[in-house]
Amino acid sequence: MTTIVELRGIGKSYQTTPVVHALQPVDLTIEAGDWLAVVGPSGSGKSTLLNLLGLLDRPTQGRYVFAGVDVSTLGERERTALRGRRIGFVFQQFHLLPHRTAVENVALALLYTTPSAGQRTTAAVQALRRVGLGHRLHALPSTMSGGERQRVAIARALVGAPDLVLCDEPTGNLDSANAHAVLDVLNDLNADGVTLIVITHDPDVAARARSRVHIRDGSVTSADPRSAPSATTAKAPA
Ligand SMILES: Nc1ncnc2c1ncn2[C@@H]1O[C@H](COP(=O)(O)OP(=O)(O)OP(=O)(O)O)[C@@H](O)[C@H]1O
Ligand SMILES: [Mg+2]
């Protein structure tokens, strides 16, 4: 088993007035191949947790070991490099470039890691085929359905072969048919070994994951019968 994520007592307070304790100290372990859903109501700390996991923000306490690297010790540059090479992101609002085709949007994710434009395009085509969009390679986002756009965003997250794909409300902007198509893609990817963490307030989305943790008022509590419940500790089962 390869451990991808190891959080030990990771917490986050925003130094606003008054201070917001957005995430109480949490322990969390995620192994390669896991699919963990983090579910909780609005304002409970889900995006705060995702931003910490994705090296987009720093915790105010605790230790984070990502893929064997203690990231607390890294400078901003090294964190950015690690994030770019090893973590893929999928957000609620797709964030596609409107005047670029699907294949261009995906290929752009490799701009800083793959010097050859031909290789970038080949990898982008493969990633789009993987999410079932081999027939929409040259479509512009404005001509695609919400579910198709989100699948382009998933292909973009995948194309660099990351160790971890983080999704923040990936179906939040989709109707139920499109949401199902996106969840089917996530299911296939996980079956192929892609490690997923999906943040959601939707219990139906959470139900598709292999394991779940609940977050409420910044406290993560285990909701999965296979892991030991505790007020501040959640452990994703292997
Ligand atoms: N940059 C910030 N500065 C101050 N407080 C913040 C900041 N970001 C988030 N918060 C606060 O931290 C808490 C957790 O916010 P977070 O965005 O993590 O919630 P969430 O679970 O993702 O909610 P939603 O489901 O609405 O996206 C909230 O009380 C929020 O107001
Ligand atoms: Mg959020």
From TrEMBL:
Annotated spans, Disordered: 216-238
CDD domains listed in its UniProt record: ABC_MJ0796_LolCDE_FtsE (cd03255)
InterPro entries reported in the protein's UniProt record: AAA+_ATPase (IPR003593), ABC_transporter-like_ATP-bd (IPR003439), ABC_transporter-like_CS (IPR017871), ABC_transpr_LolD-like (IPR015854), MacB-like_ATP-bd (IPR017911), P-loop_NTPase (IPR027417)
Keywords: ATP-binding, Nucleotide-binding, Transport
Keyword Chaperone: no
PROSITE patterns: ABC_TRANSPORTER_1, ABC_TRANSPORTER_2
A Pfam family of this chain: ABC_tran
Ranges of compositional bias, category Low complexity: 227-238
Gene Ontology molecular function terms on file: ATP binding; ATP hydrolysis activity; transmembrane transporter activity
Domain of life: Bacteria
Span of domain ABC transporter: 5-238
GO CC aspect terms: membrane protein complex; plasma membrane
Nucleotide-binding found in the keyword field: yes
Protein name: Putative ABC transport system ATP-binding protein
